[in-house]
Design goal:
The chain is built from three helices and five strands; from the N terminus they run βαβαβββα. The chain is of the alpha+beta class.
Length: 110
C-alpha cells in the first residue's frame, strides 16, 4: 500500500524546535505506516534535502529528475517503509518511545 504526502512541514521553520518536530513527524509517519500496512510514501521535496533523508535512515528512491520551480529544484521521491526503518530512524534521531497514541482498538492511529 502507498500513501502520498503533501504539505506536512514548512521549510521556513528553523532551529532546534523545528528539528524536533521534523524528527517526531518522521517517527510518527513510520509508526503509522507499520500499523496500517503502508510500505511507501510518495512526496515532493527540494532535491537538496535528499541527503538529509538518507542520513536519517530512510530508503529513498527518485521518481523523476529534479525540476526547477520558483527558484528551487523539486523532486518527486518515494520513501520506503521496510522492516527495519523504524529502528534505523530511532537510532539516528535518538527517540526511543512511540510517538503515536492509539485512540481505540483500530489500526488507524491519531
Amino acid at each position: 500500500s502507498l500513501v502520498s504526502l503533501t504539505s506536512c512541514v514548512s521549510a521556513n521553520r528553523r532551529g532546534p524546535a523545528a528539528l524536533r518536530v521534523h524528527r517526531l513527524l518522521a517517527l510518527g509517519l513510520i509508526e503509522f505506516a507499520l500499523l496500517n500496512g503502508i510500505n511507501a510514501y510518495n512526496l515532493v521535496a527540494e532535491a537538496r534535502r535528499v541527503p538529509a533523508l538518507l542520513s536519517m535512515g530512510w530508503t529513498v528512491h527518485p521518481l523523476g529528475l529534479p525540476t526547477p520551480f520558483e527558484g528551487e529544484e523539486l523532486q518527486a521521491l518515494q520513501v520506503r517503509i521496510e522492516e527495519d526503518t523504524l529502528d534505523r530512524v530511532r537510532r539516528r534521531v535518538r527517540v526511543w518511545h512511540p510517538v503515536l497514541q492509539m485512540r481505540e482498538e483500530k489500526k488507524w492511529a491519531a
